[in-house]
Amino acid sequence: MPAIQVRPIIFTDISALVAIDHSFTSEYVWQMDFQEEAGSVKIAFNQRRLPRAMRVEYPRPSQYLAEIWNKKPGLLVAELADGEPVGYVNLTDGVIPRTTQITDCAVTPRVRRQGIGKALLLAAEDWAVHRGNFQLIAELQSKNYPAISLVRKLGYEFCGYSDRYYANQDIALFFGKAV
């Protein structure tokens, strides 16, 4: 893992964070199966391998992210030793009692899979604890297999979903962890 520091955002970070390529490549999707029969509804998510790897666009435009960053209580930035911002995690609290929500997390493609996302999520856990929150909930696209794998590796468990959650009508999956 490259030497990084995770710290709160400063104004000069915004242009670098907006420029991050938020898209990702995935070979899997969590596909929803819905069955309704005799007064019963059954919903299951099954991990399915795609016929080929696909590039998935991030569901929120970067300009939208820049606009909401000023309204969020927690935005942590990962920077390299030379001061270059290479990732961030966007945190919200107060919506659900004693819970911090992870709504956005991104790492610059050239330094992905080097532990930066993990460092950001561990810093998010510390941030939550210091604010008196005891649970984190991460919101992820059903096609974001790399992020789903990371949060599950860090002890997050599937705890819900919302159909047509994003502007592009994708399903949001929610993974929670007690801290």
List keywords for this structure.
single chain, 179 residues, alpha+beta, Aminopeptidase, seven-stranded mixed beta sheet, two-stranded antiparallel sheet, 4 helices, 9 strands
* Global outline: globular
**CATH topology-level fold name:** Aminopeptidase
Count of β-strands: 9
| Rg, nearest Å | 17 Å
Q: What proportion strand?
A: over 45%
How far from one another are the termini?
A: 24 Å
Number of domains: 1
* Biggest sheet, spatial arrangement of strands: 1-4-5-6-7-9-8
Low-confidence stretches: none
Class by SSE composition: alpha+beta
CATH class: Alpha Beta
Order of helices and strands: EHEEHEEEHEHEE
Largest β sheet strand count, sense and barrel closure: 7 strands, mixed
Please estimate the helix content: 10-25%
Mean pLDDT: 91
CATH superfamily: Gcn5-related N-acetyltransferase (GNAT)
Tally the helices: what do you get? 4
The CATH architecture designation is 3-Layer(aba) Sandwich
Sum this structure up briefly:
By secondary structure, the protein is α+β, with helices and mostly antiparallel strands. The protein has helices at about 15-20, 60-70, 115-130, 145-155; strands at about 5-10, 25-35, 40-55, 75-80, 85-95, 100-105, 135-140, 155-160, 170-179.
Question: Which secondary structure elements does this structure contain, and how are they paired or packed?
Answer:
Elements: E1 4-8, H1 14-18, E2 24-37, E3 40-56, H2 62-69, E4 74-80, E5 85-93, E6 99-107, H3 116-130, E7 135-141, H4 145-153, E8 157-162, E9 172-178
Parallel strand pairs: 6-7
Antiparallel strand pairs: 1-4, 2-3, 4-5, 5-6, 7-9, 8-9
